[in-house]
Design goal:
The chain is an alpha/beta fold and 392 residues long. Helix content is 36%, strand content 28%. The protein contains eleven helices and 21 strands. The chain binds adenosine-5-diphosphoribose and P-hydroxybenzoic acid.
Length: 392
């Protein structure tokens, strides 16, 4: 079956779904094709920190009602090291900007509902997706759905299919440069049915490794432990996880960590990755398809949303006046932000993790950096303005 749309979008993560909705609001048609089933994408537990700019955009788009009701606005965070906590007053340091805690899968669920409410095409469980003729004026997306083969002809293809997707690989060899950095650690993340032991996120540096206390709601805590990249969740029974969390978060003041049933447990590797440029022919890559950041800065989703905001504006300009200047600028504009965020995420990661084999000199440097951020307003502001998100 042969079909036609204006913009073909591969992937229904935050990037693909936000793009589809932004285009709809500008009167541009799109079709979204997604490999997984709906339930899977709506339940996949991932990060949950939304920058102010992401919240503002979702609200302007008309998909912010549940976010406004259920999202938890945070005006500060804690850095904990040497057995003491230090508050970084995010809002005071950034002219009132804040972050909102709201699980990525909820953002995805709200966007899917909005897409279905307008009756626009969003196909789950598509198979064998292939993009072609990307350097022509009618690029295509071929896929199988419900047992039938389809071919979708588009004006443009948006590759929003994440790091393991197929669109990036459709670009001929030699066009894209990949820049990568591996970290010698991973995060073991848990979701626990227990009221958070803190009102604000705690990023903790300890001799035994990094730990993070985050949350999802007044009843649900989200916690992370730095582990080795080749570690296995099987080696982390619940008791061992709690014991390690207690040790790393312990303070001189006797802070207590509440325990509860662990309902989700997974190890995620950490990497930094960027492709340059983020565009070839009529294919535009966005979100994790184009870049990955380590989770320490909580930026993955926000960066994906920032990309598609630029792309939606550029496509709208093209459809309105045939002007392709913004499309030509897409990659350059996105990459400026991508590299700022890469640096911030790398910096947070380096400042907070235990590096196996680091000598005493390097450990003292790390401590000096933490102390500077917590004692100097300029130092704290650098963290704060990056954490809440630097406006365009
Ligand atoms: N065809 C169709 N869909 C695909 C294909 C394919 N071949 N391959 C992958 N997908 C889908 C995935 O199933 C997923 O739902 O593309 C979607 C990509 O979504 P994300 O991985 O969430 O990526 P993105 O939308 O860029 O959002 C980035 O996700 O990984 C987190 O921390 C990251 O928060 C960041 C956000
Ligand atoms: C989360 O809540 O899942 C979370 C919070 C902060 C991070 C990463 C993840 O830096």
């Amino acid at each position: 079956m042969s079909e036609r749309t204006q913009v073909g979008i591969v992937g229904a993560g935050p990037a693909g779904l936000v793009l589809a909705h932004l285009l709809h609001l500008r009167g541009i048609e799109s079709v979204v094709v997604e490999l997984r089933e709906r339930d899977y994408v709506e339940k996949r537990v991932r990060a949950g920190v939304l920058e102010q700019g992401t919240v503002d955009l979702l609200t302007e788009m008309g998909v912010g009602d549940r976010l406004a009701r259920e999202g938890l606005v945070h005006e500060g965070l804690e850095l904990r090291f040497g057995g003491r906590g230090h508050r970084i007053a995010l809002s005071e340091l950034t002219g009132g900007r804040a972050i909102t805690i709201y699980g990525q899968q909820h953002v995805v669920r709200d966007l899917i509902e909005a897409r279905q409410a307008i009756g626009a095409p969003l196909l789950f469980e598509v198979e064998d997706v292939r993009v072609g003729e990307l350097d022509s004026e009618r690029p295509s997306i071929a896929y199988r759905h419900g047992g039938e083969r389809h071919e979708l002809r588009c004006d443009f293809v948006a590759g929003c299919d994440g790091f393991h997707g197929v669109t990036r690989g459709a670009v001929p060899d030699g066009v894209l440069t990949q820049l990568e950095h591996e970290y010698p650690f991973a995060w073991l993340g848990i979701l626990a049915e227990v009221p958070p032991s803190t009102d604000e996120l705690i990023y903790c540096n300890h001799d035994r490794g990094f730990a993070l206390h985050s949350l999802r709601s007044p009843e649900l805590s989200r916690l992370y432990l730095q582990v080795d990249p080749d570690d296995d969740v099987e080696r982390w029974p619940d008791e061992r996880i709690w014991e390690e969390l207690h040790t790393r978060f312990a303070t001189d003041g006797g802070w207590t960590l509440n325990e509860g049933p662990i309902v989700e447990k997974a190890i995620t590797p950490m990497r930094s990755f960027v492709v340059e440029p983020m565009q070839w022919g009529r294919l535009y890559l966005a979100g994790d398809a184009a870049h990955i950041v380590p989770p320490t800065g909580a930026k993955g989703l926000n960066l994906a949303v920032a990309d598609v905001r630029v792309l939606a504006d550029a496509l709208a300009a093209w459809y309105e006046s045939g002007d392709d200047a913004q499309l030509r600028d897409y990659s350059q504009r996105c990459l400026r932000r991508v590299w700022r965020v890469q640096h911030f995420s790398w910096w947070m990661t380096s400042m907070l993790h235990r590096v196996a084999g680091a000598d005493s000199f390097e450990q003292r440097l790390q401590r000096a950096q933490l102390e500077y951020v917590c004692s100097s307003e300029a130092g704290a502001r650098t963290l704060a303005e990056n954490y809440v998100g630097i406006p365009d």
